[in-house]
């Protein structure tokens, strides 16, 4: 390869030339979703960022030589709490959430990884790893059925997150009832009560901690050592620090992943996304508002993956217009060669904003064939670009509220009000669709903005 791929490695805190352990078997593991609720657009960021890296690795090393694993965390106390809150069993929550996740990420044009292991299928591998850690004195069990990893036994602990053990000790919360030797020690296995999901083990009936799930799945599918491990920046500590500790110590001190990549966080209109601020936005919310998957991708990739991303609806609408403009000029021939300037931008630590900038250049200089190739690579497909009328964000919120009002009316059996809302919206060009439990809506070609404002 003439110009190597440079990636910023969080482990060395520098950009390094990427060289796979084996060019015929390039391996990447990315931490996937904990499946208890619909994916929010922050969750979509690592999916889209690592989708671009996956596409680039396939471009550079050929499709058959790249293995991408993204796990599904289907054992987690948040899932148990959700099942309890909804009064349904755990599988109902996880199966439903996984199918939503697939639909949403497919809509965004993300390629499916080669493997999507679920934690529930790897409990025996987790138990093996824990046993090995205990027998080599990196972990210990306590009488109440917990197993902890003893961080002081691993001299590199804190290296990824650039933290010293003493500093970490100062920040840690002391739990009164804990049976840990040291407050920094973390859980590998914990006991389950009769209502909680549990598996038999040498330490009694219990369930694994979150960190060991990824270590065991990565080892089983990719081996003790592999090339790239990714996830959001919030996972550096403690999740990835703990994965490194467990995997290194149970794999005869072999280096775990060579490159650690982390995407920055996403905010909405300048604010942290949270349910309490009422600005929590799921991918499905965007789909309902009739934005195209390509425009969402474009908007996400317009910011470099390591920078914080400020999600703005105004920009999403601009993205939609740009893609319509481009797609009007390009054909659908299937050619894969990437224009050199775009490849160069990607080789420089996945510089997607620069790539998009170059795509504008290609459009302005009427190089539509090259633009088409770049659009194909980026998954800015012409298929899903909607040529319908765009609806302003405030009106879209208004429609959401009316739809919710209608759903509440239906629940309280006030069908005349529910029908009236539906009719009113229809007369303003908004079509409501009830699919199973979900209600979606779309703006038709007959959208009447003025009428909608008056509703
Ligand atoms: P979770 O399901 O919470 O474990 O998160 C799945 C992935 O989404 C992880 O890689 C997180 O780091 C990432 N993530 C969660 N929230 C955000 C956010 N607001 N911005 C960017 N990435 C996020
Ligand atoms: Zn993980």
Question: What are its keywords?
Answer:
455 residues; alpha/beta; Rossmann fold; 3 domains; 4-stranded parallel sheet; 4-stranded antiparallel sheet; 16 helices; 43% helix; binds adenosine monophosphate; binds zinc ion
Describe this entry's structure for a reader.
By secondary structure, this protein is α/β, with parallel strands linked by helices. It has three domains: 6-263, Rossmann fold (3-Layer(aba) Sandwich); 311-378; 393-454, no CATH class. It has 16 helices and 15 strands. It has helices spanning 41-61, 77-86, 90-107, 123-135, 165-171, 210-222, 236-250, 283-288, 293-301, 313-327, 340-347, 352-364, 368-378, 393-411, 415-427, 449-454, and strands at 6-9, 14-17, 26-30, 66-70, 139-141, 147-149, 186-191, 206-208, 226-232, 257-263, 266-268, 271-272, 309-311, 430-435, 438-443. Helix 2 (77-86) crosses helix 3. The longest helix is centred in the first third of the chain and has 21 residues, at 41-61. It starts with 5 loop residues before the first strand and ends with a helix. The mean pLDDT is 92. Residues 31, 33-34, 42-43, 45-46, 231-232, 234-235, 263, 265-266, 273 line the site of adenosine monophosphate.
């Amino acid at each position: 390869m003439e110009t190597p791929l440079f990636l910023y490695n969080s482990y060395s805190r520098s950009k390094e030339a990427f060289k796979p352990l084996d060019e015929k078997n390039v391996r990447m593991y990315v931490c996937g979703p904990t499946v208890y609720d619909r994916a929010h657009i922050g969750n979509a960021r690592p999916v889209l960022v690592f989708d671009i890296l996956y596409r680039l690795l396939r471009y550079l090393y050929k499709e058959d030589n790249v293995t991408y694993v993204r796990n599904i965390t289907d054992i987690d106390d948040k899932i148990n709490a959700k099942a309890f809150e909804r009064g349904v069993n755990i599988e109902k929550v996880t199966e439903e959430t996984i199918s939503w996740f697939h639909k949403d990420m497919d809509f965004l044009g993300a390629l499916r990884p080669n493997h999507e292991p679920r934690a529930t299928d790897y409990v025996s591998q987790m138990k093996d790893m824990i046993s090995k850690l205990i027998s080599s004195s990196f972990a210990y069990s306590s009488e109440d059925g917990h197993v902890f990893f003893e961080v002081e036994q691993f001299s590199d602990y804190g290296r990824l997150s650039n933290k010293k053990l003493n500093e970490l000790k100062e920040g840690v919360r002391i739990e009164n009832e804990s049976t840990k030797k040291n407050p920094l020690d973390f859980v590998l296995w914990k006991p389950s009560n009769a209502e909680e999901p549990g598996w038999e083990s040498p330490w009694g009936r219990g369930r694994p901690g979150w960190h060991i799930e990824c270590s065991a799945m990565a080892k089983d599918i990719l081996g003790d050592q592999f090339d790239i491990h990714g996830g959001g920046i919030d996972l550096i500590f403690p999740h990835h620090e703990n994965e490194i500790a467990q995997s290194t110590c149970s794999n005869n001190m072999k280096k775990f992943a060579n490159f650690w990549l982390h995407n920055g966080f996403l905010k909405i209109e300048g604010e942290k996304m949270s349910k309490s601020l009422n600005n929590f936005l799921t991918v499905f919310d965007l789909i309902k508002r009739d934005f195209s998957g390509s425009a969402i991708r474009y908007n996400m990739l317009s910011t470099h993956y390591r920078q914080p991303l400020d999600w703005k609806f105004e920009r999403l609408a601009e993205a939609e217009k740009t893609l319509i403009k481009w797609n009007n000029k390009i054909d659908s021939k299937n050619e894969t060669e990437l224009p050199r300037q775009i490849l160069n931008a990607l080789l420089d630590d996945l510089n997607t904003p620069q790539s998009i900038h170059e795509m504008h250049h290609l459009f302005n200089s009427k190089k539509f064939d090259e633009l088409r190739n770049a659009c194909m690579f980026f998954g800015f497909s012409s298929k899903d670009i909607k040529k319908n009328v765009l609806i302003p964000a405030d009106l879209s919120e208004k429609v959401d509220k009316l739809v919710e009002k209608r759903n509440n009316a239906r629940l309280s059996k006030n069908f005349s009000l529910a029908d009236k809302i539906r009719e009113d919206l229809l007369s303003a060009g908004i079509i409501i669709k009830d699919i199973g439990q979900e209600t979606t809506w779309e703006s038709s070609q007959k959208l009447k903005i003025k009428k909608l404002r008056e509703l």
